[in-house]
Write a structure and sequence with these properties.
The chain folds into two domains: 30-167, Peroxidase, domain 1, CATH 1.10.520; 174-311, Peroxidase, domain 2 (Orthogonal Bundle). Helix 3 (61-73) packs across helix 5 and helix 13 crosses helix 14 (297-312). Helix content is 47%, strand content 2%. The chain has 334 residues and is mainly α. Strands 1-2 form a two-stranded antiparallel sheet. The termini are far apart. The chain has 14 helices and two strands; from the N terminus they run ααααααααβααβαααα. Bound molecules: protoporphyrin IX containing FE and 2-acetamido-2-deoxy-beta-D-glucopyranose (NAG) (8 copies). One 2-acetamido-2-deoxy-beta-D-glucopyranose (NAG) binds at residues 173, 216. Belongs to the peroxidase family. Ascorbate peroxidase subfamily. Its EC number is 1.11.1.7. Disulfide bonds join 40-120, 73-78, 126-328, 205-237.
C-alpha cells in the first residue's frame, strides 16, 4: 500500500519540480541552435560576410557590434529594442546616457539586415542579428567560436529609462557592477568574463578622465593606475581637452580578441575604473578569476563562449510575442 501510493506521488513531485524549473527559465528553453536551419540556412555566413566587408575600412567595427548585443540584452532582454530610432511612439535607447555619442555600427546592422532580407525575407529577427553579429565579430578578431542560440523576436517598444539605469557605468563600484549583472541573472564569473570584451575597441576620454586628475573627489589620480600608463593617458586626455578623444581599451593588442585584458589589469593598466576594480578591489572574489584568465587563454575563451550564451538568454521574446521587424530601426507598419 505504502509503496504503491508513494510511486505516483513522487512522480507527481518530479513533474511539479520540472514545471517549476521551466517557470524559472521560461524563455531560454525556447531558443535553439537550429532555429533557421530550414528557413534561412545560410544566415551565419551572410552575417559574417557583411562584417568582413565592413572590417576592410573600419578595424573597430567588430568591437562596436559586440557591444550592441550587450546593450540590447541588458535592457528588457535581447529583443532588438536598442535598434529602434526615435519616432512618434519611440524614445530611442540610442539617446540614453550609456549609448549617446557612443554606440555605433547601426549602419552595418542595417546592411546585414538587407542582405538577409534578400535571401530569406521576413524571417530573421534583428535581436538574433545582434547575437550572430557578436559571435562573428569575436571570431573575426581572433576569439572563440560558440553555437549561437536563436529564435528571438523583436520588441514593439524601446525603454530609454531602462537603458539609463540598467547598463553599468564605468564609474560604478564593483558592488554596483555585480548587482547590475545579478539583476539580469548573470553572476560574478560572467562579470569578469564578459568584461574581457574590453580586449578590443575604444573608449572616449570622458569615460575615464576623472581617474586621471580628480579620482572620486580626492583631488589626485586613481592610485591603481600604473605611473607610466597614467602619463600616457594624461597626454592623450588633457584636463580641459575634448572628452571625445579615443583611447584603446587594450593598449597591448588593440584590435585582437585575446586574454591580454587580464594581464593589463594585473599590471594596473585597466582603462576604465570598472575594469581595474575587478583586480584592485581588496579581497574581491573577482581577483582569482582575473588571475586564472590571465594565465590561461583557453580558460578565458571557454568561459567567454558560455557567458555569451548566458547573456544571450536574457528574457528573449519568443513564440508569437513581438514581431520580426523588416527594418531594424522601425516597428512594422509604423
Ligand atoms: C562590466 C560593465 C561594463 C562597463 C561599465 C562598460 C563600459 C564601457 C564604456 C564606458 C565603453 C566606452 C564607450 C565610449 O567611450 O564611447 C565601453 C566600450 C566597449 N564595451 Fe564595455 N562595459 C562593460 C561591459 C561590457 C560587456 C559585457 C561587453 C560585451 C560583452 C562590452 C563590450 C565593449 C566593447 C567591445 C567596447 C568597445 C566598443 C567600440 O569600440 O565601439 N562591455 N564599455
Ligand atoms: C551563403 O552566403 C555566402 C555569403 O553571403 C555566399 O557567398 C554563399 O553563396 C551563400 N550560399 C548559399 C548556398 O546561398
Ligand atoms: C554628441 O555628438 C554631437 C555631434 O557630433 C555633438 O554636437 C554633441 O556635443 C555630442 N554630445 C556629447 C555629450 O558629447
Ligand atoms: C536618459 O538619459 C538621457 C541622457 O542623460 C536623458 O537625456 C534622458 O532624458 C533620459 N531618459 C529617460 C527616459 O530617463
Ligand atoms: C552605485 O550604487 C549606489 C547605491 O545604489 C548608487 O547610489 C550610485 O549612484 C551607484 N553609482 C553608479 C556610478 O552607478
Ligand atoms: C570613494 O570615496 C568614498 C568616500 O571617501 C569611499 O567610501 C569609497 O570607497 C571611494 N571609492 C573608491 C572606488 O575608492
Ligand atoms: C581647466 O579649466 C578649469 C576651469 O575652467 C581651470 O580652473 C583649470 O585651471 C583648467 N586646467 C587646465 C590644466 O588647463
Ligand atoms: C587551461 O584551461 C583549460 C580550459 O579550462 C584547461 O583544460 C586546462 O587544463 C588549463 N591549462 C592549464 C595549464 O591550467
Ligand atoms: C503609435 O501610437 C499611436 C497613439 O498612441 C497608436 O494609435 C499607434 O497604434 C501606435 N503605433 C504603433 C506602430 O505602435
Amino acid at each position: 500500500m505504502m509503496v504503491r501510493s508513494h510511486a505516483p506521488s513522487s512522480l507527481m513531485g518530479i513533474a511539479v519540480f520540472a514545471a517549476l524549473l521551466f517557470l524559472l527559465h521560461p524563455s531560454s528553453a525556447q531558443l535553439s541552435s537550429n532555429f533557421y536551419a530550414t528557413s534561412c540556412p545560410n544566415v551565419s555566413n551572410i552575417v559574417q560576410t557583411v562584417i568582413q566587408q565592413a572590417l576592410q575600412s573600419d578595424p573597430r567595427i567588430t568591437a562596436s557590434l559586440l557591444r550592441l548585443h550587450f546593450h540590447d540584452c541588458f535592457v528588457d532582454g535581447c529583443d532588438g529594442s536598442l535598434l529602434l530610432d526615435n519616432s512618434a511612439n519611440i524614445s530611442s535607447e540610442k539617446d540614453a546616457a550609456p549609448n549617446t555619442n557612443s554606440t555605433r555600427g547601426f549602419d552595418v546592422v542595417d546592411n546585414i539586415k538587407s542582405a538577409i532580407e534578400s535571401s530569406c525575407p521576413g524571417t530573421v529577427s534583428c535581436a538574433d542579428i545582434l547575437a550572430l553579429g557578436a559571435q562573428a565579430s569575436v571570431v573575426l578578431s581572433g576569439g572563440p567560436s560558440w553555437t549561437v542560440l536563436l529564435g528571438r523576436r523583436d520588441s514593439l517598444t524601446a525603454n530609454q529609462a531602462g537603458a539609463n539605469t540598467s547598463i553599468p557605468s564605468p564609474f560604478g563600484s564593483l558592488a554596483n557592477l555585480t548587482s547590475q549583472f545579478a539583476a539580469v541573472g548573470l553572476d560574478t564569473n560572467d562579470l569578469v568574463t564578459l568584461s574581457g570584451a574590453h580586449t578590443f575597441g575604444r573608449a572616449q576620454c570622458r569615460t575615464f578622465s576623472p581617474r586621471l586628475y580628480n579620482f572620486n573627489a580626492s583631488g589626485s589620480p586613481d592610485p591603481t593606475i600604473s605611473p607610466s600608463y597614467l602619463t600616457t593617458l594624461q597626454q592623450l586626455c588633457p584636463q580641459n581637452g575634448s572628452g571625445s578623444v579615443l583611447a584603446n581599451l587594450d593598449p597591448t593588442t588593440v584590435d585582437t580578441f585575446d586574454n591580454n585584458y587580464y594581464a593589463n589589469l594585473q599590471n594596473n593598466q585597466g582603462l576604465l575604473q570598472s575594469d581595474q576594480e575587478l583586480f584592485s578591489t581588496s579581497g574581491a572574489a573577482t581577483i582569482s578569476i582575473v588571475n586564472s584568465f590571465s594565465g590561461n587563454q583557453s580558460a578565458f575563451f571557454q568561459s567567454f563562449a558560455q557567458s555569451m550564451i548566458n547573456m544571450g538568454n536574457i528574457s528573449p521574446l519568443t513564440g508569437s510575442s513581438g514581431e520580426i521587424r523588416s527594418n531594424c530601426r522601425k516597428v512594422n507598419g509604423s
